Amino acid sequence: MALTACAGTPAPQPASSTQATNPIITNIFTADPAPIVHDGRLYLYVGHDEAHGDQMFNITEWRVYSTDDMAHWTDHGAIMKPTDFKWAIRDAWASEPIERDGKFWLYTAVEHDETDVGKSIGVAVSDSPTGPFTDALGHALVANSDTDGPHVWDDIDPTVFEDDDGTFWLYWGNANLYYAPLAPDMISFAAPIQKVDLTNFEEGPWLFKRGDLYYMAYAGIDEAENENEQLYYSTAPTVTGPWTYSGKIMGPGENSFTIHPGIVEFQGDWYLFYHNAALSIGEEDGAIGRRSVRAEHLYFNEDGTIQPVTPTAEGLTIPRRE
Ligand code: FUB
């Protein structure tokens, strides 16, 4: 709409805003978003799901996208596939990278070969956030036999975080939430693995800090309310707790049993990445294993609590509306 001015009054300036899209990536199915910021760009790591028909998941590779305005994205392509870990056989499940001294360490879940059946955490390394990444260890950092979970897929969904004292921490898990400090080599632990209980916790932990408060966002299930996963969070005064349940961030993802958070501050604003299964590509509808990554603005209250987020069909409007 054109704006016109009355004689003698200054012309009103149109508010300039950019409209992003939801989902962010529409030509392939993507899941388990992990956003990080490096050198003024936001890098988004996802799993590329090629499930067909009734297949549950067929997540074949990890890919990276980046942006400097949250609306226009560069596709950096595939950075690694599960069998680049010689001991893994499939399943590019959720991952999260972190930079340390110019190297990028990618912690990720994959299916281990027959020598330790079940999901395992691998660690890969690259000189660039856009890869390529190679196995940094030659075996799993955490294999199924290293933990005492209720099933063989409890060692998934790693989230990695650097604390103010320079210690890097890894949390991960499904059903059980495990954690341990990483050693300076980033490929071993500096202390034994421990466990913590969080209200409704199911999987997909995402650890971050804002001000003095540590936040653990995660996918959880409250069966009295909904059989599908919803996004919850707990907060703590230290990286190891004690954790206090702090509420729900978002309800279930449309058409999706799973939901998976990735939270980041970029250019002064906070963003929540998640996935649902509302996208169709050609004949293939979204489904349990064919999800697509999306983003919304995230708002905090004065006391540090997170305001519930309503998914939008249209995606981010930038700058955000107050
Ligand atoms: O994408 C595979 C699995 O589904 C992830 O590891 C979970 O967080 C859930 O999103």
Question: What's the CATH topology label?
Answer: Tachylectin-2, Chain A
Bound molecules: beta-L-arabinofuranose
Shape: globular
Strand % is 35-45%
Q: Helix fraction?
A: under 10%
- State the order of secondary-structure elements, H for helix, E for strand: EEEEEEEEEEEEEEEEEEEEEE
Number of strands: 22
Tell me the domain tally.
Answer: 1
Structural class: mainly beta
Q: What's the CATH first level? A: Mainly Beta
Main beta-sheet strand count, sense and barrel state: 5 strands, antiparallel
- Supply Rg: 20 Å
Number of helices: 0
From the coordinates shown, what is the CATH architecture? 5 Propeller
Mean pLDDT: 94
End-to-end separation: 23 Å
Low-pLDDT ranges = 1-8, 10-14
Query: Which homologous superfamily in CATH is the superfamily?
Result: Glycosyl hydrolase domain, family 43
Keywords: Carbohydrate metabolism, Glycosidase, Hydrolase, Polysaccharide degradation, Xylan degradation
Active site: 32 (proton acceptor), 203 (proton donor)
Protein name: Glycoside hydrolase
InterPro entries: Glyco_hydro_43, Glyco_hydro_beta-prop_sf, Glycosyl_Hydrlase_43_Enz
Characteristics of this structure?
43% strand; Tachylectin-2, Chain A; 322 residues; five-stranded antiparallel sheet; disordered N terminus; four-stranded antiparallel sheet; single chain; binds beta-L-arabinofuranose; 0% helix; 22 strands; mainly beta
